[in-house]
Specification:
Elements (H helix, E strand, L loop, with lengths): L6 H18 L3 H7 L4 H9 L18 H14 L1 H21 L2 H12 L5 E4 L15 E4 L3 E12 L6 E7 L9 E7 L5 E6 L10 E12 L3 E2 L5 H37 L1 E2 L2 E2 L4 H29 L5 H26 L9 H10 L8 H13 L5
Parallel strand pairs: 1-4
Antiparallel strand pairs: 2-3, 3-7, 4-5, 5-8, 6-7, 9-10
The structure holds acetoacetyl-coenzyme A.
The site of acetoacetyl-coenzyme A has 26 residues, from helix 5, strand 3, helix 7 and helix 11.
Length: 383
């Protein structure tokens, strides 16, 4: 397999990098400290077209490919992991399922403003008893003729409460397992739809994460996404693509920490020479660079497969699992290179070390990624 990015990809990288350096970097310390969402920066991302990168122009998108999208998430996360996941959750989880499964009316009403960045999207799958076992959904949507009555709740929802549009999964036919789950488009502000806990997280603190509570929310029939009973497959297909976004986020966080560590290793002198020229540190840097290069190939090649409508579920799981695992290793090594200085609040490697951890947990823990990868190789277990 030959793989390289194009000039267009690299031009986009330059543009997003400049934006991240100029508009986001100066805010990262305060956003992390105060749990602040970058409202203005996200609005600017919308104006730049970056909230709709992989969607066609007639949907309000940029009409670029999945690699472009991965590069944009990577470049935002290189400066701020929280902003990286805001874009990833909005694009892959909040917008893509409407693009892929929405009817014309749904696309007109919801997809266009999402792609233009006029609205922010989110994805409501996880529940207290349905985390890794996403099929354990307990939220219900009861058919009441012209609407469904939605009851239950979701936890750990990225972009809530900032998001306007939520793709929510609920049981429409009980007792038949995952085939009884359906997907709905739910709007913020509807009666009975409230936000519970706003989580105080270890990392990615510039992103918002909240609990969704549904109390007799009337969801119009026309907001059923896809067919009744198709919800679990919609969720799984969405996550296949979403994992490319999280892999790109992990890659970006690791890249940011790596660059910090290289700069420091060239400046910091101990035993008469910069520490980067001591073998203990130079070998670390060599290993970090190799891991980053491997992760980048995995991420971009999964994106390329998706772009070309080829099977990519295993490859996106591999990219997510590997990039997240190495993000932990690389940020850990970066902090180690900084020594005591890196352990101080205000140091970017300290924040990046905390930001990296979530990438091994959300959009399917890395244990779940290994289940997905193994099931692609081995198939279903014998009965
Ligand atoms: N695409 C389409 N359909 C799929 C699919 C896929 N990738 N994977 C499974 N399915 C279908 C299967 O074909 C099967 O359908 P049939 O019965 O018709 O054949 C059905 O779904 C059930 O499949 P499984 O028996 O494999 O399902 P399972 O219950 O064993 O679960 C799992 C599989 C992979 C473990 C799944 O539960 C899973 O992905 N769990 C992790 C959940 C997750 O990633 N949550 C993330 C929440 S979002 C988030 O974290 C975002 C954020 O904050 C940024």
């Amino acid at each position: 397999m030959l793989f390289s990015t194009t000039q267009q990809h690299e031009e986009l990288r330059t543009r997003v990098r400049a934006f991240a350096e100029e508009e986001i970097k100066p805010l990262t310390f305060l956003m992390d400290k105060e749990n602040q969402f970058p409202d203005d920066a996200v609005a600017k991302l919308g104006k730049m077209g970056l909230m709709g990168i992989p969607f066609p122009a007639d949907s309000g998108g940029m009409g670029l490919d999945m690699i472009s999208y991965a590069i944009a998430v990577e470049e935002l996360a290189r400066v701020d992991g929280g902003t990286g996941v805001i874009l990833s959750a909005h694009t892959s989880l909040g917008t893509w399922p409407i693009f892929a499964f929405g009817n014309e009316a749904q696309k007109k009403k919801y997809l266009i403003p999402l792609c233009k960045g006029e609205k922010i999207g989110a994805f409501g799958l996880t529940e207290p008893n349905a985390g890794s076992d996403a099929g354990g959904t307990e939220t219900t949507a009861v058919d009441k003729g012209d609407h469904y009555l939605l009851n239950g709740g979701k936890i750990f929802i990225t972009n809530a409460p900032k998001a306007d549009t939520y793709v929510v999964f609920a049981v429409t036919t009980p007792d038949i397992g995952v085939r009884g789950i359906s997907a709905f488009i739910v709007e913020k502000g509807w009666k009975g739809f409230e936000f519970g806990d706003h989580y105080d997280k270890m990392g990615i603190r510039s992103s918002s994460t909240a609990e969704l509570i549904f109390n007799d929310v009337k969801v119009p029939k026309e907001n059923l996404l896809g067919k009744e009973g198709q919800g679990f497959k919609i969720a799984m297909a969405t996550l296949d693509g979403g994992r490319i976004g999280i892999a790109a986020q992990a890659l970006g966080i690791a890249q940011g920490a790596f660059e910090q560590a290289v700069t420091y290793a060239k400046e910091r002198v101990q035993f008469g020479k910069p520490i980067g020229f001591q073998q203990a540190i130079s070998f670390k840097i060599a290993d970090m660079a190799t891991k980053l290069r491997t992760a980048r190939f995995l991420v971009y090649s999964a994106a390329e497969l998706k772009e070309n409508h080829m099977p990519f579920g295993m490859e996106s799981a591999m990219a997510k699992q590997y990039a997240a695992d190495i993000a932990l290793e690389v940020t850990n090594d970066a902090l180690q290179i900084f020594g005591g200085t890196g352990y101080l609040k205000g140091m970017e490697v300290e924040r990046m070390y905390r930001d990296a951890k979530i990438t091994t947990i959300y959009e399917g823990t890395n244990e779940i990624q290994r289940i997905v990868i193994a099931s692609h190789i081995l198939g279903k277990p014998p009965k």
